Fold each of these.
Amino acid sequence: MHKKDGFPLSFFAVLPKYNIRVCVQINNAYEKIVEYAHACYYLQFAVTSNTSYRVEEKRMISNQILQNTIEGLKGISRVDFCVLDTEGKELAATFDMAKDCGEAVLSFVESPADSQVIQGCQFFKIFDEQRLEYVLLADGETEDVYMLGKIAAFQIQSLLVAYKERFDKDNFIKNLLLDNLLLVDIYNRAKKLHIDTEVKRVIFIIETSHEKDSAALDNVRNLLGGKSRDFITAVDEKNIIVVKELSDKDGNKELEKMAKEMLDTLQAEGGDEQIHIAYGTIVSDIKEVSKSYKEAKLALDVGKIFFDEKDIVAYTTLGIGRLIYQLPLPLCKMFIKEIFEAKSPDDFDEETLTTINKFFENSLNVSETSRQLYIHRNTLVYRLDKLQKSTGLDLRVFEDAITFKIALMVVKYMKYMETLEY
């Protein structure tokens, strides 16, 4: 932002030609006002986000944020302020005189003037895209009070614009993730919101052990929102979504590193809270962002079943689990009945299951498996023969091993789905 003596150049458009002494006196105060207004803006976003994260239109800044803002301005400028709507209803105030200004406000609203001195107060109009949104009162008639009131009005108007832009972007990203936009709308709205349409992006989904609320979402924004071109939002109560912009050189290694950094940052803040992160594939066009989101969501769900020991799951690592997850349960039950007949893998004792898993981990290598299990090779062969007799599958034969491995994954999937039903 271009500045002149500490002020943004656009600010001088709202001031007449005042002397240098007055400008210098409020220069530091202005910088504090800007900082305070920014803080109020982020707080406003947290307040207006509700726990259902519905995609809805909302334009007005909450009364609480207006109250916090003018109290902060009063603390800096030592001038009392009041914000009213266009019908003279008080929205926020730091002094009582505003209660007697209802008729004066209505008269001021109807007048063509942007500012007036009425009943010992400076009155200012605050617009939102040429529509009168608020009336601001500053207590006092002096030139300094007028100037500080003008600054306060300018800051509240800037807060309106900043909030609208932020909310519109968040609303756009949510609808983009959920595939709620026509293709032509995606590009038109992205252009209007100054969002680049042809850069590499990927979706990260963060799930913690607690349901999300607006404070949790805002906390993640503060922890991870270091890059202005990234978006952090939520479309339900369970997950927080990070739309991450990437450079041309970023690939799978870099994505894993980013996920690990997110995990470390959130674990350091959240203590013992269980956190899982999943991410989709890289997309190069904004219209494909929803694809990466669906992949990340699938990775999160499949990871709970087949990779429950992992905190980070990538869509590209799901393997055959991605296919099994999409099978209908009746087909799964039929398959298991054909493989194991009356038995189920749950009926195998702990020793047998440990032997099977270790044998798969070592790529069907008998010698290495027996070494890691601290048993004689012949003992392992005996266990495998015993398993072959009970199931008809010889795990030393590749095709039988594949069938058995898939069967174990199908059983795991069925058990997981049963827990969801309850």
Amino acid sequence: MENTLPSDTEAEQGLLCSCMQDTRIIGKIADIITLEHFTYPAHQDIWATLLKMYFDKKPIDLLTITSELRAKNLLESVGGEHYITHVYTVVYTSINWDEYFKTISSCYLRRKIHFAAKRMAADALDRTKDPEDLKEEASREITGMMTTKTESVHIAEVFNKRINAWEEAARTGGAINRGHDSCFPRWNMSTRGFRPQTVHIIAGRAKQGKTTAALQMVTTPSINKGVPIGIISLEMGAEELVDKVTACHAQVGMNDLRDGKLNKCDFAKVSNFMAQGMKAPIHIVDEASMTVNQFRARARRLVVENKCEIIMLDYAQLVTPNNLKESRERQVAEISRMTKIVAKELKVCVVLLAQLNEDNTIRESRTFEMDCDSLTKIMPVEESDDPYAYVLHVTHNRNGTTPIIPLKFHKHMARLEEAIGEQ
């Protein structure tokens, strides 16, 4: 049997007929549909003519569309007056226009997948091309097939939704508008927690607790409430991460755990934690390197396959940019922007780790504050005699205050706790 490209002549005719009968339909699909949605050149010419007439605010009916095609010397090429009349009368009502549109869109997407697969197959046989480059090109190709179909809404609709949300907030004491809690109550109150479509940056100088803090923050809702999370680590291996998580939540010494020197009490703590921790929906991606596009693709897999609601990336400056020829600041800015795109696109919370300079500014980029919902820096208290005195400083926050939260850093347990009674 001969394989033909997916198409549906009748659906194309039905949609064009519906647009001629009710020009409001053109306005609804003008920013979505393209000429490539139509497989037949005659239908492409008819759609292009309808679109121009619509935006020129010309009246549209059988006579005017025929006249317009004649003026553009297209009438004969589309099949003459007989074919235009046939298209204009192919359906009696425009009520089913959305079904015709869905059919056309489905065929169009299948054709795009077919051509993309052919290109990928041809490139895969070309030994002069790097496999990693091929993976990135394939990822971009698939991602590019996604279309934005957001429609405008009247403010009254939004008000009605918000009134319900405000009433629910009053009933729950605001809990309905807060996300998943981290392990730090004051940080939760300030930032409203890990909410969908938000980006929270945890930044710190090298070896000063940013990974420890972020790991404790994101694993807390997973272990305590069963929230699925993804951890993409470009710095630490999966085994080291699990050691940190275990020492933190079991509250035992990490070196004692690694060296097999746990006493009976600590061994019981670890056993109790493992019974809970092994059931937690924590998914670890341990990679030595990752490009910006690979991060986007991996985040999508974590959401689709594991339903992750929080994705932590450790850390920004280790991600390989798409364009190595640009300045380092622009490269890191690209990574920052991509985390925001991923959060919005996948409706997840992204926790991005970043490294600070010695003066506590973020290394290599000034764009992080523009892209994130909150920027939190973890720093030792320089003027304190206590080597375990640290602070979480929320230096940027779109949704609340910017507190300085005193902490105690129990380094041997890879665990931080809010310092009780300190402000």
